[in-house]
Amino acid sequence: MSTINWMDEVEKRKEYLIKDAQGLLHIKSLLDEENTSIDAPLGKGVKEALDYMLLLGEKDGFTPKNVGNLAGHLEFGTGEELLGILCHVDVVPEGDGWTSDPFGAEIRDGKIFARGALDDKGPTMAAYYAMKIVKELGLPLKKRVRMIIGTDEESNWRCVEHYFQHEEMPTLGFAPDADFPIINAEKGIADIDMVQKESVQNKEAANVEVVSFASGKRYNMVPDYAKSSVHVKDNQEEMVQQFTNFMKQYELEHGHHVETGELILEVKGVSAHGMEPKNGKNAGLFLAEFLSKQSLDAKAAAYFQFASRYFFDDSRGVNLGIAYEDDISGELTINPGKLSYSKESGGRIGMTCRYPVTNKMENTKAKLDALLETEGFTIENFSDSKPHHVDEKEFLIQTLKKVYEEQTGEKAELLAIGGGTYARSLKAGVAFGPLFPGRPDIAHQKDEYMYIEDLLKATAIYAQAIFELAKSE
Q1: How much is the pTM?
Q2: Contact (Cβ atoms closer than 8 angstroms) between residue 347 and residue 341
Q3: pLDDT tens, 66-81?
Q4: Domain CATH code at residue 329
Q5: Number of structural domains in the chain
Q6: pLDDT tens track for 253-272
Q7: 352 is a domain residue
């Protein structure tokens, strides 16, 4: 058989590929738990996007299947073994400040602009067209090829959970939802709430009483805003001056005002993904650090000094005694993404811990339990998603390396990440593209886009990958 020019095949279908991608990007597929139905358990938008893909696939001759309105698949080919391609059609909220309509899928400067262009609707359509090319060329395959479509990747993964309770696990596969060349290691993700115990009694009066303090809503984001309400007995002006000096020293936006006799302090930080807290500035930790230096009542002092001692300026768990590093996936990181305190119920810190693939979470948790016991805190709501690692010697990785190198002329380096992709729900799966080295990662940001050129290049890579992975038993 003559060698296939995969890029030529993509170019022939370019117009339709872009049009179908725009059609998918026009759908506002946001999780909407307020307006659900049996047909749309996660809301109308995500269901519409799932239906769009299933209808498109049916029209093109794939076998479609809707799995509980939470996920679905498109399949072709015959064989015992199954190659899985895991995609998702839900997106994060669009947010403010867009240059064009976030669901307009406008094309300018060779880029397609829309929420989901890069994460994960553009890549989903690239993988879909890759399957279509392999199918239309009538190439001899020994495995079935199946695109699995999720609708809840940006929240709780209810889609793949439900899917794999009812459907078979692919023998091997990839998720086009991260970076090229190949991500073969994903850190473990443990989310932990640390809650202050009731043991601390307020005996002596203090100069500063913290009424409330709050920062952050999600484990996996560095909080960019914090607010606290305090009563100051004496020298309020002096405290305000200290607050201003402290925040200026760290070049943080801040403000204060008095409301019904309480002093309100506010801090603006810099948001970032919780897998690398160093990319952001945690507003909650800066405000907690400032408050920890004041003359506080016993309960507040215990909370803010705890936050200061174990989290301020330490995103690697060194002070908590849980630091860890390995060659495969780098350092353990911690991100306290949810911080709160009230004088009635005490304080809480909700953190995500991204831990290396050789790190045993049982040991880490035992160390944390022991430390928190001495500090008057306890763990509630512990969840753990184990690390994911596919060895370089595996057929899957060897094949994808070969394809990537042939298509791009670049070396296929293996990558490890602190985030989680759908690849970890496959026993033998990796994340594979669509973001090429050197391209900015603008997923989840305003004016999210994907270069048309990259969309086409990724399609060619995926088409060859599907062929090479499915042609042998």
Answers
A1: 0.80
A2: yes
A3: 999 999 999 999 999 9
A4: 3.30.70.360
A5: 2
A6: 999 999 988 999 999 998 88
A7: yes
